[in-house]
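Reopening: structure tokens for the oxa(dethia)-CoA complex, inputs below.
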Amino acid sequence: MTSKRYAQIVGWGKYVPTQVLTNDDLAKMVDTSDDWIRARTGIVERRIADPRETTSTMSIKAARAALQVADVAPERLDLIIVTTATPDYLFPATACLVQDALGARRAGAFDLLAGCSGFVYGLGVGSQLIISGAYENVLVIGAETLSRIMDWTDRNTCVLFGDGAGALLLQASDAPGGVLSFTLGADGSGGDLLMLPGGGSRHPASAETVAQKLHYARMNGREVFRFATRIMGQAAKEAIQAAELKIDDVDLFIPHQANIRIIQSAAKHLGLPMDKVFVNLDRYGNTSCASIPIAFCEAIEEERIKPGDHLVLVSFGAGLTWASAVVQWHVPLPAPRLPGWKRLLRRVRYCWARLVSRLRRTYRKFSSWWGKAVGRIRGNNNG
Ligand code: UT7
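Re-run output (same inputs, fresh job):
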């Protein structure tokens, strides 16, 4: 008889850009104030990527940190899922850029788009691929460069969002725990409430779409707020029931960090005291898909998680979508720090991966040039 498999979280990592944009900075750009933003959202400041940073570069940093914590080599990854609404390109997938930079030779890679719920969607998909027996190691990343799709003259949106990345490494285990349950949901009738209209097949990028500002995120904040306060508590309850737990069993609630009033309303719906709720949106704003994995990493850093704890993750976002999951923590904390030589070896590995990638590109160019040259010579001889 084969033993039951579980998908445990064994590695975690985050990256946030160093540049801080405060509410006071924003008040110099649009008609807003620190008081308004704090009172209506709970946000105090957010991080903004520098011009060289992208969703893939931040993903790579978070991914490397997660692999280092777990002491797992990139070659052991079976799958990389990057959840994002702001990929580097429409294609290739950002996950493929991450796969190349890590040197994860055996891994499949794809992006997953489910609005801000993307990360919990990714966790659901990744955990099931492990529990089914298909894969051993799946890396789920949530990363966003939302500053690139903000209209910095629109106070309805630009005060809310920030940039960053977080990654969790899922691994097959026969120890009970890990991702115990999840629920995914969608209501496409609310798709127009939060969208990026331009750049897709409906409004391909053109001078006209740029003039109409269709390349910026648009949102009906009030309606999204109403939806969020209705769905967050409900989705969390469904995942708790699916894990055959009670509200009292919840040790830490890690919600999508969009608005403190939405978080408080979800906690109230569940009957959870705020000291069981993890909040860091004051420092990062809403980082969409990155919000839950960054919060998860910080909950570990702040020693808010211990083995045996039941954690509830819940998110909502564009689509409209929602998702929730229950995780039972298993790994002893704090995670042991890798010895210096192992960290050095990792750095060498990543340099090697970069070199191999360059050689492959050069070889492709050379073989294409060679093929054409041989074709020309043959053509000349025949002629
Ligand atoms: O990951 C999912 C992403 N989306 C969200 O999470 C958004 C969810 N929605 C929200 O968090 C809230 O609806 C907002 C924070 C966006 C807005 O808060 P609100 O309490 O719902 O404000 P409101 O939309 O009802 O607007 C109230 C007033 C309006 O003025 P009038 O019409 O009453 O004169 C707005 O124009 O506040 C005004 N306003 C602002 N004032 C100062 C809107 N944005 C700002 C601003 N600064 N940044």
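The radius of gyration is 22 Å. Residues 306 and 333 are 7 Å apart (CA to CA). Marking as resolved unless the reporter disagrees.
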